[in-house]
Hints:
Pfam families: CRAL_TRIO (PF00650). The chain is α/β, with parallel strands linked by helices.
Amino acid sequence: MEESRANALFQMRKSVEKLGFSTEAYGDATMMRFLIARSMEPAKGAKMFVQWRKWREAMVPEGSVCESEVAEELEARKIFLQGSSKKGLAVVIVKASRHFPSKDQLQFKKFVVHLLDKVIASGCKGREIGNEKWIAIVDLHQISYKNVDPRGLITGFQFLQNYYPERLGKCFILNMPWFFVSIWRMVSRFVDSATLKNILIVSNEEERRIMIEEVGEVLPVEYGGKAKLIALQDAIIIPHLDA
């Protein structure tokens, strides 16, 4: 099995080079995410990797999206970065009642990139390996129609699937109101099966217990944990310093 994976990785790297891109700066863990996302088919994995590289160069030419570029989205204080779960996965919480559809789609897309990049950075133990995953908790408590943003949801999931493959460890959706069920059914048509299998709509105490057990103490008190909410912009990511 290991031999076949190693061979698939080798073939994928060769395919990327034929497409005019280098893989020298990327470890096996990073390459494997794209390979897994394309059912271990080297040519398809290579194509996805190259598309990601091109997208990254266009969307984030400086390597990261700074807070000043997404200030309006951050002002809502709707995203919280809580630290690591019991298994070492970064934990991010979304309070959907504080979100409103953006009039500036480019800024919203940059905000999604800023968010996901910071979540990944918070989950790194030292330096990024390439296979870090996270847990997302999406709280729909007290949302109304003015908070509903199908376009934003679809954009978020498309970014996850196309540019952050195999990053989502688990997504718990809490407090889904009746009117949102039909919206979720529509949005989920744009979500691939690999992502859908990691999404759990929490609808009973047993599912809530599973969430609490999986996340651990970094879960805020209001959700059954022991921590305080930490807004995305207040979360401090300590960079790794080589010895």
